[in-house]
């Protein structure tokens, strides 16, 4: 029964008046379409959507390592010997270098990450997209 109904609908002839009405509706619909500004987002071209990059100062660790003057020998590399006043021994704290490693937080980044200035770390840029809606 359903098959007969489908074939009977498809066999109907559409009048010229109906075709003209359909054409006018489609044409009228295209004419009154209004250009609309729509808000959209695209990936940031500076950071490629990541929001930032690893810090080049601390290599993404968030901590920098510097050498400071040894607090035991004060940079002299040797200390007076405990048993003899005339001899000096190599400092055991700095191993005779006069400097000791010291870690400090990196001031160029936040936890090893430098946020993109173009997109403020979001990774997205808003763009006005014009289209027909």
Structure report:
With 133 residues, the protein is an alpha+beta fold. It has one domain. It has helices at 2-10, 16-31; strands at residues 35-43, 52-54, 63-69, 78-80, 88-90, 99-105, 113-115, 124-132. The chain has a two-stranded antiparallel sheet with strand order 1-8. Strands 2-7 form a two-stranded antiparallel sheet. A two-stranded antiparallel sheet has the order 3-6. Residues 129-133 have low confidence and may be disordered.
Record keyword descriptors for this entry:
alpha+beta; disordered C terminus; 19% helix; rod-shaped; 8 strands; two-stranded antiparallel sheet; two-stranded antiparallel ribbon; 2 helices; 133 residues
Topology:
Layout: H1 2-10, H2 16-31, E1 35-43, E2 52-54, E3 63-69, E4 78-80, E5 88-90, E6 99-105, E7 113-115, E8 124-132
Antiparallel strand pairs: 1-8, 2-7, 3-6, 4-5
